[in-house]
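Anyone have tokens for Multisubunit Na+/H+ antiporter, MnhB subunit? Sequence:
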Amino acid sequence: MSRHPGIKLFSALLCLAAGAGFVYLITAALQLEIPSAANYTARAVAETGSINVPTAILMDYRGFDTLGEASVIFTSVAVVLVILGAPQFSQPDRIMTLLSRRAIAYLLPLFFLFPVYVILNGHLSPGGGFQGGVSLAVLVILLHVVFGNDFTAQRLPMRLLGITEYLSALAFASVGLVGIALGSTYLANAAAGLPLGRPGELLSAGIIPLLNVIVGCKVAAGLSSIFYALAGHTAEDTAEDTATESRQ
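Reply: yep, here.
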């Protein structure tokens, strides 16, 4: 059934108003002068060893905020699993053709290298644990779509993803305490006396590369678990609908 023209017009005007509001806010924000921003830009490399300033801010200056952000995915996974329960794939797999599976199998190493590069070089270039973890989760979804439920579940069982999620959360919180144990602040680097190495090299920036790896594992496991739960729940509903239609 087609929508009323008045509703379409109202929706279009609402979208235009929202877009204009966002443009105004962004323009106004760009004109603001924030003294602390210049301080972060000038001191970030010397105090953290990371030439990627956003990563230095996330993994050092505002460590408690980052810990809260990392716990959001942990909480989301817990809520989704409590509501939906364990995934139940009751229908047979709908795998892709042999040609598609062979092509993806040859390309998988390349698909895997990109998120690994993003995670390991998060303190050197744009990227980091969050972005790389999302890319790894997309790779898990690709395996599920191309090779089916059984193939993916045998190689990446839900239990393994859950353990990875929990251990990564514990590791992030524990590594952050090193700065406090050394007499400084949470997730501190130079302020805690940690060696920063030479800025621009892979082994530099103190504990930031380790934190990127931990966050990458955590985000990948968390988002993959959410996908498993949603995909299994959808498959269960589809099976119930099919059974109901067959009885009718």
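The CA atoms of residues 5 and 11 lie 10 Å apart.
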